[in-house]
Amino acid sequence: MSDLVPEIHGSCDPGFAALRDAFAANFAEHGEVGAAVAVAVEGAPVVDLWAGSADRARTRPWQRDTLVNVFSVGKPMVALCLLMLVERGQVGLDDLVFKHWPQFAAAGKEEVTVRMLLGHRAGLPGIRHALPRSAMYDWQLMTAALAGEEPWWRPGEQHGYHVNTFGFLVGELVRRANGQSVGEFFRDAVAGPLGTDFHFGIGAPEEGRVAEFIFPEVPPDAIDAHATALIRNVYLNPPGLSGFGTVNTREWRAAQMPSANGHATARAVARIYSALAAGGAVDGVRMLAPDMLALATQEVSNGHDAVLDRPSRFGLGFQLTQPGRPLGPNEHSFGHFGAGGSLGFADPDVGLAFAYLTSQGEGPRWQNPRNRGLVEALYASL
Fold first, then answer.
1. Any idea what the CATH number is for the domain that residue 99 is in?
2. Could you confirm whether 72 is annotated as catalytic?
3. N or C terminus of the chain with fewer C-beta within 10 Å?
4. Residue of 2, 11, 53, 72 marked active site
5. Is residue 190 part of a domain?
6. pLDDT digits (tens, 9 = 90+) for 190-237
7. Which range marks the domain in which residue 180 is found?
8. Is the pTM here over 0.85, yes or no?
9. Looking at the domain assignment, is residue 191 inside a domain?
10. What's the domain count of the chain?
């Protein structure tokens, strides 16, 4: 191994030594700065590793309890909150959204269902009218803007990844159905019962253990004045919505933006997916009944994505494995990728939960060699 490999901390079952080696190789070969990886099999932790630095200058070591921004790894977590309310009978998948959120019926959205929102089929991936830079920190402003927005396509007729709006849309349904913010509901119904270190909204006392996210200060050239209006609004309205120039600020970390600013440890993400890999419960703590989980992980959207301009495949809030971006080799895996290559998923075929979180937001977004190498080593170890 190269001198670029830092000391690797944590525990690793001997049978998963190849995964530990792949984790080390990410530092030597792929520019990893700081990261963590965790795996559970049939609910039992078998890998819990962390290494590197929690800042770009490499002055703070990554610790066991270091939190990192997980970006879209958080989307299934807010979906899980709404699915729990569906199971409780407080919301129906085929309910019209305006039944719970009357203002949402504006601008041709009266036929949008809860199922469409969860499956990225509602036609609301962006907001057309220009919002001020701080708007994403104002939940009421963002949800009011979405309620008044005209769909970019006829709802239900196609799908497109709701990159930054998904968390506001689904989270507002959680709030209206249950009376709690999505961060509060997630804490009380998911993170707390499972004992996981996963948060939407980081308080100032926790600031010292949050890793600096290494991310461009300005958007990439692909999102500029030459991009389509849809793409500009998806990623850059309001400015800073995707984290460019904002991701490491106190305001970003304190807000609840569940599409983008969940903060967690890899251990926490793997713990949640260990429940889902086992049919919805682990160690006597139930998240979802098996039939609801089966429904949530059935295909709702597949094929050309109107936002990403490439194939994507979704269940109800979960990305589903697909040939161009597999979640391991088995057909029933589900989870979600995040910026920089972070990834959490469950493979119910083998009772496996996997999580990899990185602070390295730069690099390939679609085919990331760091998560790919870890997943390949994981399955070679089974």
1. 3.40.710.10
2. yes
3. N
4. 72
5. yes
6. 999 999 999 999 999 999 999 999 998 888 777 766 678 999 999 999
7. 54-370
8. yes
9. yes
10. 1
